[in-house]
Amino acid sequence: MLDCHNISYSIGKNTLLRYVSWQFAQGKITSIIGANGAGKSTLLKGLLGIVKPDVGRVDFQGVALSEWTLQELALRRAYMAQHGTQRLALPVVEYLLLARVHYTESQSSAEQHVQHVINELDLIAMMFKRLDELSGGEYQRVELARAWCQLLDHQQLDGKLLLLDEPGSALDINQSQKLYQYLRKFVAAGGSVIVVEHDLNVAAKYCDEMLLLKQGQCLAAGKTNEVFTQTNLNQCFNVNGQVVHDEKRGVMSFSL
Ligand SMILES: Nc1ncnc2c1ncn2[C@@H]1O[C@H](COP(=O)(O)OP(=O)(O)OP(=O)(O)O)[C@@H](O)[C@H]1O
């Protein structure tokens, strides 16, 4: 789905990414994990084409990112940044309609797609609230819906890609769990997700694959249960923690 070949990126003398390669799989949730400053957001921006690597190449659906037009990309992949954009004084539903701008469709079709996403993401209670009146967590939920609305085409998500930078950073424990249930729905409907995540245990529970970054380098990548090891995580974060397998619940967790 998205292949990154040996990408490196520097600003001045500061090397943010060093020869990172990975094939992000279709139909999976892949987490990007690493310490503060490891280069996770930079990698995501490289995958989006916002950051142009000095070396290496990113291919999306087998075609170099540089060959796609922005319009073509906007229909196929959507980004949720770590820090939301300036909030507009608009009702949620109007804001979500703006995400349909790339489609040639009637107003009623746009409204149907937006209503579908509002229902899927349980946002009915806030659909008429203004963005600048939402809490941080509520706004983050709307931003996910905005990205989802951008991708939904004839109620389908086949081949669509969400790139999310810490989408749950403002969410409570219940909403954080729901976020990943929504992402699993997105993948079940044919989409793929790449997510920068700081909560290791959430990533271990919900993500199919995991890429560990350390100082701009890929330390390990692969299936979550293969990458989520004590050795890898301790090396990645310079800590001395333990991985515990809860066989009964079928989950792994890491704690210090
Ligand atoms: N515009 C910039 N100019 C110079 N250095 C930058 C710039 N943007 C980021 N960096 C540096 O690049 C490194 C990687 O930043 P990045 O935001 O990708 O890290 P991150 O892994 O996402 O961190 P966090 O978990 O704290 O969000 C950091 O050391 C940061 O200071």
TrEMBL record:
Gene3D superfamilies: P-loop containing nucleotide triphosphate hydrolases. GO terms for molecular function: ATP binding. InterPro entries: AAA+_ATPase, ABC_transporter-like_ATP-bd, P-loop_NTPase. Residues 2-240 form the ABC transporter domain. It holds the Pfam family ABC_tran. It comes from the Bacteria. Keywords: ATP-binding, Nucleotide-binding, Translocase, Transport. Part of the ABC transporter complex HmuTUV involved in hemin import. Responsible for energy coupling to the transport system. PANTHER family: HEMIN IMPORT ATP-BINDING PROTEIN HMUV. This is ATP-binding cassette domain-containing protein. It comes from Alteromonas arenosi.
